[in-house]
Amino acid sequence: MNTMADVARKAGVSLSTVSYVLTGARPVSAETRARIEAAMEELRYTPNAFARGLRGRRSKIIALVFPSRGRGIDISSLGYILGASDHAQSMDYHLLLWTTETQSLAALRALVGQGLLDGVLLMEVRLDDPRISVLNDADIPFAMIGHPGGAIEADWVDTDFDDCVRVAMEHLAGLGHRSIALVNQAATVVETGLGGAVRTREAAERVAAELGLELEAVACDSTATAGSALINGLLDANPRLTGVLAFNEQAAPGVMAGALARGLRVPDDLSVVAIAMSDQAALMSAPAMTAVSADEREMGRLGVELLIKRLEGEAGPHTQKLFEGVLKSRGTSGPARPQRN
């Protein structure tokens, strides 16, 4: 049975152009339309009923593309998704969560090539993200929660990781901490160039140098077990360590559990400050986690709103907004313990 891809090859056009002819979502020249229709007739291709039903109107479906492997969908990530989904529904759009991996470009091409989506909202954006080229080639509108390393003509919102890290490290320094560890995402995630992980590490190294702090930046798998093992190794190697900056929501509870298991108290012996952790996640730890975070639901809301405005025909300059973090000092940060001679 022939597919839409076969039609595209026969007609010498892109998969997305075939989908536009089938759905009527975008104008296609008469000459190109005729070639596609001739190819469909020759191949005896019949589009599926749903695609035929979309002819002449938009689907009002947006795909939120979130790679779920690596660090998975934690509570804070869910905040972005819910913020986007709730706002999309309020604007009469439907949000489809698509968990295909960043490197699965063929799956993304197939998704956007079916003609069933109006637009795409990207999350977990890498500094050099190959998905952006796929979306540009497909000529499908998209926006991002996160942003790549270079300049780009697209709408995006993101956490200001430089600001969050500075606020967190100044908080720890103000409490007398001089030796700090950054517990980042898993090595496999950092190595892919995930924007938040790379920017957090670079900001921590820069701020530590400015404040004269001793910093050990380490990657950690996104599990409590890994966090516990990591903090034990760090404390064995450096007994002067009194502060932890955590950009790893799943590992952070393990860091506290590991400290407790070796007879240390949080925050009396070890302070922990999280980066980009939602209030809900922070309040689930015991004691409640001190965190520097932006409003993840508002970022999700604005990200989908920017995309829908483009879908509704709004022109003008792209919106590119960084959200500053807010320090909420809770039960996991306190004065540094005196160093024993």
Automatic annotation (TrEMBL):
Ranges for domain HTH cro/C1-type: 3-50
Ranges where the HTH lacI-type domain occurs: 3-56
InterPro entries linked: Cro/C1-type_HTH, HTH_LacI, LacI/GalR-like_sensor, Lambda_DNA-bd_dom_sf, Peripla_BP_I
Organism superkingdom: Bacteria
SUPFAM superfamilies, per the entry: lambda repressor-like DNA-binding domains, Periplasmic binding protein-like I
Keyword Magnesium carried by entry: no
Pfam annotation, one family: LacI
Stored PROSITE patterns: HTH_CROC1 (PS50943), HTH_LACI_1 (PS00356), HTH_LACI_2 (PS50932)
Molecular function as annotated in GO: DNA-binding transcription factor activity; transcription cis-regulatory region binding
Keyword set, alphabetical order: DNA-binding, Transcription, Transcription regulation
DNA-binding among keywords: yes
SMART domains tied to this protein: HTH_LACI
CDD domains on file: HTH_LacI (cd01392)
UniProt protein name: LacI family transcriptional regulator
